[in-house]
Backbone:
């Protein structure tokens, strides 16, 4: 009998304790002499949640891989056809280039830099069937030759990438009956290829233009709502193969003909959550299921059979990984409530050492001087501000060296107080009265940007060195109620309210001047910024309605991040930790409460190799 | 199958929903202690464990509407200074 070493090239080891695990340990078997257990590192599959897309657009489809995916088109409420594209980077979504032609049910597949968006549905306009074809280069869409026919209501029925893309089946018309048509696109021209064995819509199609697998689908009425038949394509014709153990239609797919993944779909459960693998011969049920039922969803098209993403129109996205690592997704959870309900407060610090101060409570318009510290576990009351006020400038300092600058009492004020972790003392007043400024930096190297002075919003900005204020370069826009983070020489200000309306702009400060940064996903104010200029978490806020949305900024571009459970404006707490560490937000407005004391805490994602105990069976 | 179930439950603070819950099912809170929960086993169990009372989508929407209208009335009664610093609560429509 062959030994384990002869088969896998690794000898079974005897160790006192489990080793520090890395990918090099995959397949390694060891006996833990302390616990008396035989262990190994083996790959396993799992779905994990990731940040939802920025827009909830039903019937938007896309493709790509788990670290470079995309979706396009779809309906927004109305229904209004959309031309929006969103790009997925493995953790979140950001805005991409717009389609030239808005539509839904697009036959979308291909790499993010070589994507194809073909055909689709023109409903509620006529005729429904569209033949438009566009190519995506990762930044913009280009119109190319139209398809020889149209397809819609055909989720998941295309594969490949430019210049070797294909689409199968679907509805076309009038009379809008199911089709057997296979269409191929070579980067310039379209051709019609071998017919699929049955007229179906919503076939799960995975692979390439010369080696694809099609499975399941929806036959024309009054036939059953779905079938489980399958066929392989060799570039010229389809050949029936084994049937799928689950009958369904219109789901997600990824991989190749010999390592395909099929997941979710309709109707019902298990169709909506089950994952199947296909190895070129047989289907098998994967142990991992989607946590959230998905049907008619967008998915990756070009990932290998070990990874995939699936997203439904409700901004629910899950990612599949088969590896030795346990992936624990980032998430917001209900946190420990602070003691004082309020909003338009200020706060600074890290996820384990933050301080929140000032604000106002409504109803009743009760100004707050309370100061509360967060130690990573609980909130505790500290010495009060000398002057109760709200609209204090945001984001300068730390828990042991915070700054309360400006604000509103019965009028806009210029007064400053400094906190040392125990008590507040008077600081040097600002050169002018102002409130609801953005800010960043420390108590001895801080920047106050724009805000509301007298009269109204202005661009005035100031630097504070712990003893005196000096006039800084004016902020590019007269804006208020924005948020900032970072340092005096690498600061960031995001969004805010201008005249008229909110803005999506972000600006970087280098200690001397302002330059434009990447735009927010939407115009935003009243949010909390947490992190640095190149790793910032933008939490909640208003658009102007308060939102659950959270995004991250890497110094260049903004992408979505796991959302709060409850929409919150003026949340305050962490300003210096960033998305990779953790966060807490408390207070603020949570409609219908204008002055909440509830909190949410953020736990960052982790990924770690995991040992499995081997047992006999 | 519907993507969501709707219910009313009182947020009791830390532990009311955990990071594990957020990974296991979709969850979003709305005015009136209304929660929209992903329609899977984990979501349904969470609502039950929180002594939540399941509502139809229409019932949940009605509860939200009442709360939003009250919040809008409260905002309308605010001083101009405060109105300038916070948006008027907008209507909320369950997806």
Residues:
């Amino acid at each position: 009998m062959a030994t384990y070493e002869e088969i896998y090239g690794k000898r079974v080891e005897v160790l006192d304790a489990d080793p520090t695990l890395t990918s090099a340990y995959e397949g390694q078997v060891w006996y833990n002499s302390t616990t008396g257990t035989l262990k190994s590192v083996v790959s396993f599959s799992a779905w994990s949640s990731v940040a939802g897309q920025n827009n909830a657009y039903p019937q938007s489809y896309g493709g790509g891989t788990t670290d470079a995916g995309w979706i396009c088109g779809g309906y927004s409420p109305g229904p209004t056809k959309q031309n929006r594209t969103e790009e997925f980077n493995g953790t979140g979504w950001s805005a991409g280039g717009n389609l030239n032609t808005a539509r839904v049910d697009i036959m979308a597949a291909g790499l993010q830099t070589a994507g194809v968006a073909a055909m689709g549905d023109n409903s509620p306009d006529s005729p429904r069937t569209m033949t438009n074809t566009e190519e995506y280069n990762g930044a913009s869409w280009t119109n190319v030759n139209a398809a020889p026919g149209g397809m819609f209501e055909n989720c998941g029925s295309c594969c490949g990438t430019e210049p070797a893309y294909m689409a199968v089946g679907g509805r076309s018309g009038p009379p809008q009956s199911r089709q057997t048509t296979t269409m191929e696109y070579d980067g310039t021209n379209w051709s019609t290829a071998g017919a699929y064995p049955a007229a179906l819509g919503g076939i799960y199609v995975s692979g390439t233009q010369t080696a694809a697998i099609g499975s399941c689908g929806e036959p024309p009425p009054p036939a059953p709502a779905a079938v489980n038949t399958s066929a392989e394509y060799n570039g010229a014709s389809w050949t029936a193969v084994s049937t799928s153990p689950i009958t369904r239609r219109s789901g997600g797919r990824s991989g190749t003909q010999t390592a395909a993944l099929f997941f979710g779909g309709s109707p019902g459960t298990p169709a909506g959550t089950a994952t199947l693998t296909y190895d070129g011969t047989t289907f098998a049920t994967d142990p991992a299921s989607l946590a959230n039922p998905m049907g008619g969803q967008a998915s990756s098209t070009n990932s290998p059979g070990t990874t995939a993403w699936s997203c439904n129109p409700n901004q629910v996205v899950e990612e599949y990984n088969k590896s030795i690592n346990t992936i624990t997704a980032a998430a917001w959870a209900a946190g420990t409530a602070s003691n004082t309900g309020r909003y338009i407060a200020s706060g600074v610090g890290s996820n384990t050492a933050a301080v929140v101060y000032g604000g106002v409570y409504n109803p009743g318009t009760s100004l707050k001087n309370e100061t509360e510290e967060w130690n990573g576990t609980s909130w505790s009351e500290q010495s009060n501000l000398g002057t109760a006020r709200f609209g204090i400038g945001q984001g300068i300092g730390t828990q042991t060296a915070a700054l309360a600058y400006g604000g509103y009492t019965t009028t806009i004020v210029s007064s400053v107080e400094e906190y040392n972790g125990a008590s507040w003392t008077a600081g040097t007043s600002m050169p002018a009265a102002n409130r609801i400024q953005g800010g960043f930096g420390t108590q001895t190297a801080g920047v106050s940007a724009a805000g509301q002075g007298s009269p109204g919003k202005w661009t005035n900005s100031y630097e504070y060195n712990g003893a005196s204020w000096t006039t800084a370069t004016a902020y590019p826009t007269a804006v208020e109620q924005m948020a900032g983070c970072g340092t005096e020489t690498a600061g960031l200000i995001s969004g805010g309210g201008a005249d008229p309306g909110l803005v999506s702009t972000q600006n970087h400060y280098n200690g001397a001047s302002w330059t434009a940064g990447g735009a927010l996903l939407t115009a935003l104010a009243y949010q909390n910024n947490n992190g640095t200029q190149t790793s910032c978490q933008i939490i909640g806020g208003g658009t102007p309605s308060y939102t659950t949305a959270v995004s991250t900024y890497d110094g260049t571009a903004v992408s979505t991040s796991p959302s709060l459970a409850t929409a919150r404006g003026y949340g305050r707490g962490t300003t210096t930790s960033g998305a990779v560490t953790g966060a807490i937000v408390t207070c603020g407005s949570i409609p219908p409460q204008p002055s909440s004391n509830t909190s949410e805490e953020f736990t960052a994602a982790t990924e770690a190799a995991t040992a499995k105990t081997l047992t006999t069976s | 199958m519907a993507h969501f179930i709707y219910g009313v439950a009182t947020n009791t603070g830390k532990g009311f929903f955990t990071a594990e819950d957020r990974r296991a099912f979709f969850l979003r809170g709305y005015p009136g202690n209304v929660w929209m929960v992903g329609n899977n086993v984990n979501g349904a169990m969470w609502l039950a464990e929180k002594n939540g009372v399941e509502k139809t989508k229409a019932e949940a929407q009605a509860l939200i509407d009442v709360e939003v209208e009250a919040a809008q009335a409260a905002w309308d009664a605010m001083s101009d200074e405060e109105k300038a610093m916070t948006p008027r609560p907008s209507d909320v429509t369950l997806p």
Q: What stands out?
A: Chain B has a mean pLDDT of 91. Residues 57-76 of chain B form the longest helix (20 residues).
